[in-house]
Amino acid sequence: MLQVRNLLVFFENALAINDVSLEVSQGELVAVLGSNSAGKTTLMNTVSGLLLDIQKKEQRRGGERITIMGRVEYEGREIIQQKPSLRVKQGIVLCQERHPVFRDSDVLENLRIAGYLYTRREVKEGIEKVFAIFPVLRRLRKRRAGLLSGGEQQMLAAGIALMARPRLLLMDEPLLGLSPLLQAELAASIKEICRQGITTLVTEQFARPIMPIIDRGYVMENGRLVFSGNREELMDNPEVKSAYLGV
Ligand SMILES: Nc1ncnc2c1ncn2[C@@H]1O[C@H](COP(=O)(O)OP(=O)(O)O)[C@@H](O)[C@H]1O
Ligand SMILES: [Mg+2]
What we know:
Blueprint: E1 2-11, E2 14-24, E3 29-34, H1 40-48, H2 50-60, E4 66-74, E5 77-78, H3 84-89, E6 92-95, H4 107-114, H5 120-133, H6 135-139, H7 150-163, E7 168-172, H8 180-195, E8 199-204, E9 216-221, E10 224-230, H9 231-236, H10 238-245
Bound molecules: adenosine-5'-diphosphate and magnesium ion (MG).
């Protein structure tokens, strides 16, 4: 479904993504594990197209030069120059890190805004689906997003992404900053999302909470992929163990 080939991303002269090739097949739940500043967000922004917007903004204000090279194929078509809005329409939806939500709007409004591309009936159905995966949000539907806990905001951010009807869902560090209990709960919800047919690529800094739900994973260090394998291979790898599982 997604094929990234020899991707390079430079910020001015710093190499953030260094010759990365990876793929995600239909129906898979794949993780990219990497410590802080490994390049996870840059990778997600490149696949979603957000990096093109960032690149344009930088050009306009005469800021740093961002260079993107390589191939990003979605369902066999090259999309590396496609606008993010077009990618969303084709089903590539990014749930950004640190759960950005409209803080002054309530939960329902946040979900409705996210469904703006769809008819009222589709939005209603979408909201029901989100509530089925995240029952907490139904209870909090009239609460202002800014008043939600970190975990609740993260669930809302995932709900917002689901409202855009993803076929390929990109989740950038969804478990960041949550308690172990909430991490386990959210991980189970992500598994459920994938089980419902949404192919998912997720990044994490710590492997432990995400390991139980993934099919495969890649390990990223300083912009490079240094290891890839299925869950068992990741668990058995001594470096993965020491760096990401803390054993
Ligand atoms: N807008 C930017 N300008 C310059 N350097 C950046 C920018 N965004 C990210 N970087 C650099 O690219 C590298 C990868 O960052 P990032 O993709 O955010 O990593 P991660 O999400 O894994 O923490 C880091 O060295 C970071 O400092
Ligand atoms: Mg990041």
